[in-house]
Amino acid sequence: MLLIKNIGQLVTVGGNKPKSGSEMKEINVIEDAYLVIKEDEIFDFGKSKALKEQNQYDKVIDAQNKVVMPGFIDPHTHLVFGGDRSYEFKMRLRGVPYIDILKNGGGILSTVNETRKSSYQDLLDVSNKRLDRFLSYGVTTVEGKSGYGLDKTTEIKQLEIMKELNEREDIDVVSTFLGAHAVPKEYNKSDQYIDYIIQEVMPEVVENELAEFCDVFCDEGAFSYQESEKLLKAADKMGLKLKIHADEIINTNAAQLAGKLKAVSAEHLLKASREGLNSLRENDVLAVLLPLTAFSLQEEYADAKQMIEMDIPVALATDLNPGSSYSQSIPLLLSLAVMYMDMKPEEAITALTLNAAAALNREEQVGSIQKGKKADLLIIDAPNYNHLFYNFGVNLVEKVYKNGKLVFDNSLENRKF
Ligand code: NIG
Ligand code: FE
Fold first, then answer.
1. Whose CA is nearest to atom 12 of ligand 1?
2. Which positions ≥6 away from 325 have C-beta within 8 Å?
3. From the CA of 270, which ligand is nearest?
4. What is the three-class DSSP state of 390?
5. 69: which strand partners?
6. 3-state secondary structure (DSSP) of residue 114
7. Could you report the per-residue pLDDT of 181-194, keeping only the tens digit for each?
C-alpha cells in the first residue's frame, strides 16, 4: 500500500455519474488530507488527522502541501496522423477559411495522403510521442479517432496503432472509428462512400474489436444529416456507441440527431441551435466542448454557460489534430474555458475529469477520487487548484500516477542536471 500524506488540497471531484447544472461546480475539496493506494486502486482518503498508524505502508510520499486531483481525461482527439499542415496554418492566418482549404482538396484530405503514405512503425512512433506529451500534461486517459485513412487499409492501420499503444503504454487509449471524416478523392458521391464504410469497413472494425465508438463529421463539406443518420444507425446495430462532430462549421441540426439517436456525446457545438441543445438535454447526451479549436479557427466559443444552465453535462477536450487544433495544451484549454467561455474553475475541472470520463463511458472506473476507482492521480505543484487557472499557460503537473504507478515525475529532486 502506498500513502500520500500532507496533501494541501485533495480535489476529489466525487461521484461516478456525469454532473450537470450546479453540481458541476461541486468538486469536493478536502484540505489537509491523505490518500492511500492499494495496488491499482484508491483504497482510502480523508483528513490528515484521521490517518492511522503509518508503518503499515510499503511507501510514503510527502505531497508537501500540494494539490492532488484525478488525472485529466481527454475525450476527443485525432492523435494518429502523418505529416503536418503548418503551411495551411499560415494560409489561415492570411484569412483563408478552414472549410475552403478542405473544399480545395487540402485540409483533412492532405493529412489523409500523408497518413496513407506513412508506415505502421512511423505512425506508431509519432503517435507514441504525442501520448508521452499528453501524460506530461496529466492526461491519464485519452480518446483517439481514426479518419485519416478513408480507406479500409489505413483506417484499420490507425485503429491497430491505437490498440497497440493502449496495450503497451501507461496511458489508456479509447478508440473511435471515424471512417466518415471526409469524402475521399476516389469517391465523388458522399452517399456511395457512406455505403462503402457501412458494408466494407465497419464490419471488420467491429469483428476485430478495434473501436468502442463510431463518430461522423456531420457538417458543411463533410456529411449530411441523412448520411450521418444512416451511418450511425448501422454502427448502433453493430454494437458501437455513438458520437457526433456536431454543428462545428454550420448548424446542420446534428445536435438534434445526437439526441434522436441517443448518442453518448455531441462534440464541438459552436453553431448548435437552442432546439439542438434541448434535444441533448432531453436525451442525456453529453456536450464535449473544444475551446482550442475555436481559438485556432478564431471562431466564437461554444456557449458553455448556457449549456450548464440548461443542465446539459459539459466535458472538455483538446481535439488534437493537424488542422483545426494542433495543440495538446491542457493549461491553455483550461484558461480559455474560464476566460472566454465563462466556465467557473470548478466546472472546468469537472469537465476535464468526471464528465470527460463519462464521454468515454468510463465514469465508473476513473474521473474522480472514490474508493475502488482506479488510482489515476496528479500531484499539482501549487498550494491550491486555482493556480491551474491563475498561473495560466504553465504546466503545473509534477507527478502522474496511473493505476497506482508513478509514470511521470517532473519534481526538482527527480531532474538530473
Ligand atoms: O474536430 N472537424 C473535423 N475534424 C477535426 C479536424 C480535422 C482536421 O482538420 O484534420 C476537428 O476539428
Ligand atoms: Fe475533432
1. 324
2. 290, 292, 293, 295, 296, 318, 319
3. 1
4. helix
5. 378
6. helix
7. 999 999 989 999 99
Which residues does 297 contact at the CB level (< 8 Å), separation at least 6? 92, 98, 324
Per-residue exposure over 271-281, b if at least 16 CB sit within 10 Å of its own CB, e if not: bbeeebbebbb
pTM of the model: 0.97
Q: Which of 68, 72, 71 is nearest to 9 (CA)?
A: 68
pLDDT single digits (tens) 342-390: 999 999 999 999 999 999 999 999 999 999 999 999 999 999 999 999 9
DSSP 3-state assignment of 31? strand
Query: For 379, phi and psi rounded to 5 degrees?
Result: -105, 120
Cell numbers at residue 161, please? 496503432
The 3-class SS string of 120-131 reads HHHHHHHHHHHH
Q: What protein residues have CB closer than 5 angstroms to ion ligand 2?
A: 319
33-82 pLDDT, tens per residue?
A: 999 999 999 999 999 999 987 678 999 999 999 999 999 999 999 999 99
pLDDT at 55: 73
21 Cα to the center of ligand 2, angstroms: 25
